[in-house]
Fold:
Amino acid sequence: MLTGEEQMPTCRARVEGLYAHGMSRLVVSVLTSLDGYFQGPGGDLTVMPFEDAFNTHNLELLSTAGTLVYGRTWYLENWDFWSKVAADSSADEREHGIARFVTTLPSILISDSMVPDPDAPWARTTRIVPRTAAPAELTRLKEKGDGDVLMFGSATTWNPLLELGLVDELIVLVGAALLGTGNKLYAGSRAGLRLVDATILPGSELVKLRYLTTG
Structure:
């Protein structure tokens, strides 16, 4: 078993190795309550400790992304919200920036129930991939090396990918709230992580914990 001091260079070597071989990282970013819930009961997001800095953080991640990855529920809600922002002339520059990335970056929708609709506004940027085919498709995208492969939320989608060793970086934003109940951040088997950064997002109470996976 590696000690903490031994794990750090191992994690860094893994990430540096990806870049050295022209590969992309699969990065997951998720907001949680202090007690580890990424959604309230029944998937309720209104109880989550969102702050203004959350969108600034997301825009920074989107600026280095080449592909976005979603689960079905999060994808539909996210697309609906940001497509409306894109058409809203009163939205600020940051919001328009996020909307532009969300509605124009190539996206992978991991779902066994979503049916392709060539007439849908999202069809030109989005491919639907069954869950069983997702690991191979994400591996292909990482090998392609065209920017980070980025996921927000969708814990039921990225949890299995983390168990399979496909996630390279996990960013957890811990907000100042206790929910007591809801949907937990992680429900898989044990996964090794190494903390490489812990900061408070400027002007907020959101603590950003950045982990590299250790297998």
